[in-house]
Write a structure and sequence with these properties.
This protein has about 150 residues and is an alpha+beta fold. Helices cover about 25% and strands about 10% of the residues. It contains four helices and four strands; from the N terminus they run H-E-E-E-H-E-H-H. The protein has a two-stranded parallel ribbon with strand order 1-4. The radius of gyration is 17 Å and the shape is globular. It starts with 19 loop residues before the first helix and ends in a 20-residue tail after the last helix.
């Protein structure tokens, strides 16, 4: 028995401590060889699966994050972004673009390890900060995620 996850956008929801991150963790590591009896022998995932997350402080070299982040303080360019100390949102944008460039067709996101401002702008933030004052275009705003 088992559960197949179809290609496309799939959202796993549930309350706190209901196993969402555990499932994602199993999928993330389901691409590696299994050790008999470790529980992962029942989990598999496509080999190009990549977990996308925010990594404060990571090094980023020459990644074009301008589709997600228009401009940064002090005139820092985003079309050829390089830093030794990325923020959560800039690191997550770089992670996503690097995964796509490497050919991944399976992107795994866990809200617990993502930069919220990179993922979405809720109604309250939209009222507080005018769109033209916000340099980040949230991931959910891209048409590739919308169902037809």
């Amino acid at each position: 028995t088992g559960m197949g996850v179809p290609a496309g956008v799939t959202l796993i929801t549930g309350g706190g401590f209901h196993g969402k991150s555990t499932l994602l963790h199993a999928l993330q590591f389901g691409v590696y060889d299994h050790v008999p009896g470790d529980g992962r022998e029942f989990v598999c995932c496509v080999e190009d699966a990549v977990k996308i997350r925010a990594e404060d402080g990571r090094n980023v070299s020459n990644v074009d994050i301008s589709a997600f982040i228009a401009d940064l303080p002090y005139g820092k360019r985003t079309a050829d972004f390089t830093t030794a100390n990325a923020s959560g949102s800039t690191s997550q944008a770089a992670n996503l673009l690097e995964a796509l460039e490497a050919g991944s067709q399976c992107l795994l996101f866990d809200e617990d390890t993502c930069a919220t401002n990179f993922m979405l702008r809720d109604a309250r933030i939209q009222r507080l900060i005018a769109k033209e004052k916000e340099p980040i275009t949230p991931l959910v705003n891209f048409s590739m995620w919308r169902t037809r």
